[in-house]
Amino acid sequence: MIRVIFTRFVDKTFPAKRSDDNMVLKGESSVEKGKRFELFCIMLIKRILAPLGVKVVHTGKPGDKGRDIICEVYGLTFVIQCKAWYKKNIDRSHVDELETVIRRGNNDLDTVVKKGRFSFGILVGVDICKISDEAIDRARTSECDIGVVTYHDMYSSLLDLSKCQIKCTSHYFCSINKAGSGG
User: Fold this and answer.
1) What class, spelled out in words, does domain 2-180 have in CATH?
2) Both ends of the chain: CA-CA distance in Å?
3) Average pLDDT for residues 43-55, to the nearest whole number?
4) Separation between Cα atoms, residue 156 and residue 139, nearest integer Å
5) Please, is 84 exposed, middle or buried when counting C-beta atoms within 10 Å of its C-beta (0-12, 13-18, 19+)?
6) How far apart are CA 79 and CA 56, in angstroms?
7) Name one GO molecular function term (predicted).
8) Which pTM does this prediction carry?
9) Is 114 helix (H, G, I), strand (E, B) or coil?
């Protein structure tokens, strides 16, 4: 039910078009289009994770070092890179860049989210036809947890990656407790 409501909201707010001309508002530059897409993704994230107390920081600007959006929820800090592209493809190199960003973290930023390495990253595009198979394969084989999705699938990707990280973290703490108790 929530997924259906979310999808309807997305379709009305930022309808998917297959032409770059349909995405750009009259007189809007590609930079302005990108910023509008980032703000749209922030709105979606807040709608998805608001009940969980998410902190969201919009860092998208020149020199953001690949960190358009940084979020923290339940102790997980993650980064989102937005690509509002209809003419260019998201490819393997973009996943490689995001992997570097995840490892580098956000120690150099003064934000409301905790500092350190990111728990995972999401690369968000606008059209599934513009996400290469190589990008998806590279995300699957990455040492970091990376999702490559369209904004339509961001809801399920955020939930899946969050659950995976929480499960891994709880398994880690269970292992520590067993080792510490001699068990």
Assistant:
1) alpha beta
2) 43
3) 84
4) 16
5) buried
6) 10
7) DNA binding
8) 0.74
9) coil
